[in-house]
Structure formats: C-alpha cells, structure tokens
Q: What sequence folds into this?
C-alpha cells in the first residue's frame, strides 16, 4: 500500500522548490552564465526537484510492486505503463532524468541555454507530475 502521507509530504517539498526557483524564471542567459552562485542555486534546486519526483516514483513502484526500474528514466516509464503518468509527457520526464544525471555527474557539460530553457519552458512539467500523482492518490 502506498504511503500517501509520505508522498504528500514530498509533493509539498516539490511545491516549495517550485516557488523558490520561480524567482529565477525570468533570468537572462547572460545573468545566469555570469554568476556561479546563481548557477549553483538553480542547478541544485532543479536537481532536488527532479530527485523528489524520482523519490515519489520509487515509492510508488516499490509499494505497488511494479517491475524493477533499470534507470532513473525507466522509473517514469513504469508510471506511464501503469497509467499514472501520461504517455504524452514521457519525453519531458525522460529529459528530467537525463538532466539530473548531467548535474550530478558531469558538471562541466551543463549548457546554460538548456538550464534557461528549462526555467522558461519546462517548470510546468513538475506541475504535471504533481497533478498526475495527486490524481493517482485519489
């Protein structure tokens, strides 16, 4: 049985991170690229947001005894297979997992344009994830 309290607590943390990162939603590429502190804040917050989604996914997969994921991206695929996440959103969720891996393992490969693109175009992916999980919990 899925621990709804735990998942709701993690969704609350995701909301907090979304509110915090929204402060940077209108940052320019130049401002981001020119300030290592801002880079660190944004990249780490995005990492925490993605890992929160992965934690939630992992709890659901484990508690429901779904198949074992092979990668982080596969965690999202499993939730699509079980109709918890929408098939139409899988590309966005797989990109989240890839971005997380770059942030965690290959710092020198972080492309400022990708980060700014995420801030301007993809924060809604986290809202979609949250809405899907809430719908699943009901």
A:
């Amino acid at each position: 049985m899925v621990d709804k309290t735990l998942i709701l607590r993690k969704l609350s943390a995701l909301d907090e991170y979304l509110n915090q990162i929204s402060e940077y939603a209108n940052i320019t590429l130049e401002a981001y690229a020119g300030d290592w502190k801002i880079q660190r804040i944004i990249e780490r917050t995005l990492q925490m947001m993605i890992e929160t989604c992965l934690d939630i996914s992992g709890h659901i997969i484990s508690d429901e005894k779904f198949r074992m994921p092979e990668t982080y991206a596969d965690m999202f695929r499993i939730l699509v297979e079980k109709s918890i996440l929408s098939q139409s959103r899988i590309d966005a969720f797989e990109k989240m997992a890839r971005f997380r891996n770059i942030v965690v393992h290959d710092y020198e490969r972080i492309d400022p344009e990708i980060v700014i693109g995420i801030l301007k175009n993809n924060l809604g992916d986290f809202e979609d994830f949250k809405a899907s999980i809430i719908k699943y919990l009901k």
In short: Residues 4-137 form a domain with the Four Helix Bundle (Hemerythrin (Met), subunit A) fold (CATH 1.20.120.580).
